[in-house]
Amino acid sequence: MSKLIELKSPAELETLRESARLASTVLSRVASLLDDGLATYDLEIAARREIEALGASPAFLGYRGYPAALCVSLNDELVHGIPSRKRKIRAGDIVTLDLGVIHRGFFGDVAATFPVGKVSAAAQRLIKAGKDSFAPAIIENLRAGKRLGDLSGALERHIISRGFSVVRDYVGHGIGRRLHEEPAIPNFGERGLGPILKEGMVLAVEPMMCEGSSALNLDADGWTARTSDGKLSCHFEHMIIVGAAPEIITFWGDKI
Ligand code: MF3
Ligand code: CO
To answer: Would you say domain 10-248 falls under CATH 3.90.230.10?
Structure first.
């Protein structure tokens, strides 16, 4: 028995497009501030200000006890870095921003890894592989009638073909009136398996990959997940509507 994947009505899809646009607007404004010497908490303050300015609410603040509106994960940190006044960003870092909003009862959720100043060739390759996870040939698998494993398998093959490792501990998800809905969307899988995708599903696809091993450790703060080997990782997230063609409804701005 597979679990229920909600189909959104045209009116619900319209609101989700707005939520996605609001989250993306905040993400790209915060990303435009990224600079050497900035504390990660400075970005948190900016995120809250921009969310409020757009009339939306932060989705992550208080979610399962998460203490901020924004996740800021540096270099070996993969996800859920908690903004801190003491943590400074430096030129050469790669920084993942992950941001969620609630707007008219619907969630927007978006993430991307940005370079700060000049980063290493290896970091550039990693970021490019992350972005390229949304190439047309891959998200083509989000057409109605495809199976979830078609997408997951394509993502896995893409990540491996670039020489990176696939994160198995965190996955993407359906999204709507709840931040995390069915289905869970792994970045690995097998073509032809899993639920059939239908028009009106809205999926938050979250490719996550590592330079070295994909084994992760959780910090003592209970949130920050980082690579065990200390090598780089990246994380990108788009919300996509399944239809006759896939429709990407989030964006990351021009800082990547
Ligand atoms: N984009 C992440 C997700 O979809 C963000 C969750 S952070 C949390 O799971 F703070 F809300 F948990
Ligand atoms: Co998400």
So the answer is: yes
Report which protein residue has its CA nearest ligand 1's atom 2. 98
Q: In sequence order, what are the beta bridge partners of 185?
A: 172
| Residues composing the chain | 256
Residue 81: name the closest of 91, 62, 66 by CA.
Answer: 66
The pLDDT value given to residue 2: 62
| Both structure tokens of 123 | 């970091």
Q: Which residues of the chain have pLDDT under 50?
A: none
Q: Which residues pair with 95 in a beta bridge?
A: 74, 114
Atom of ligand 1 nearest to the CA of 180: 4
Q: For ligand 1, say whether the CB of 239 is within 6 Å of any of its atoms.
A: no
Q: Are 74 and 89 in contact (CB under 8 A)?
A: yes
Six-digit token string for 255: 């800082």
Q: What is the DSSP letter of 142?
A: G
Over residues 173-194, the pLDDT tens digits come to 999 999 999 999 999 999 999 9
| Domain segments of the chain as ranges | 10-248
Separation of CA 161 and ligand 1 centre (Å):
27
Q: Contact, 28 vs 53, CB < 8 A?
A: no
How far out from the chain centre does Cα 120 lie? 22
> Which atom of ligand 1 sits closest to the CA of residue 71?
7
Give distance in angstroms: CA of 122 to centre of ligand 2. Answer: 26
Can you tell me the distance from the alpha carbon of 206 to that of 196, in angstroms, rounded to the nearest whole number? 19
